[in-house]
Amino acid sequence: MGPKEMKELRRVFNSLCFFSKKKQINQQLALIRKNITENPREITAATSKTRALHKKDNSKEEETKLEKELLAIRSRPDQHIRPQDIAAALKSLGRKVTKREVLDMMWEVDEKLDGVINWDEFCLMFERNIRDSTGLEPAGFYHMVQFMIYDRDENGLVSLDETMHMLYARIGREKMESTITKLFGGDDGAPIVEQGHQGGEINFSRYWEVVDREQKKMFSESDLGRTLAEKKNKRSESDR
Known about the structure:
Blueprint: H1 3-16, H2 19-37, H3 46-74, H4 83-92, H5 99-109, H6 119-131, H7 140-150, E1 158-159, H8 160-184, E2 201-202, H9 204-220, H10 223-238
Antiparallel strand pairs: 1-2
């Protein structure tokens, strides 16, 4: 893993730490800032002007309070990812999951079994998955993290340009082109037709569909996958 990818991995980790709480605060801040910046209707009565100014002052005080709270969360020395952070991040990407699915993702990464994911566990998960050649490595959490790494402008979509930028450094041109075609081309292997923002974009649903399918294909083509398939075929033949 190169320095650029490590930098992006750290960005995603920082984003996911206490994601649920930070998202809640940012939503409150957005509403407050909207109230502060909106042009008020023309007010003629002096008392109404006073009330409006008082309300604006209160909003600014609340904005400052929330900004300090957000800074305190980001500055905590014990940065980690909780189950509710995974659920909130997936929801923001348009994927609703059950509590069981979230706990399964935690199990994939939480080596210490303390209910949270720290930086070391996060890096270990990523390294295991990018080196996996069997399709056996649990990868639900990894798929979300990899999508967020590609999504460098954090708009909830992955563009062709963003994906190429990260893949080229890791796997080289030939493998990059194959992966890009699977993600942005047709399901039948049709070539990419670049269109839209940054050569075209896909959402998390499309990304998950492709990477999940490719992981299953990887397993079926592995030695273990072929061995299991042969055993299954032999059992089917003997049952006839």
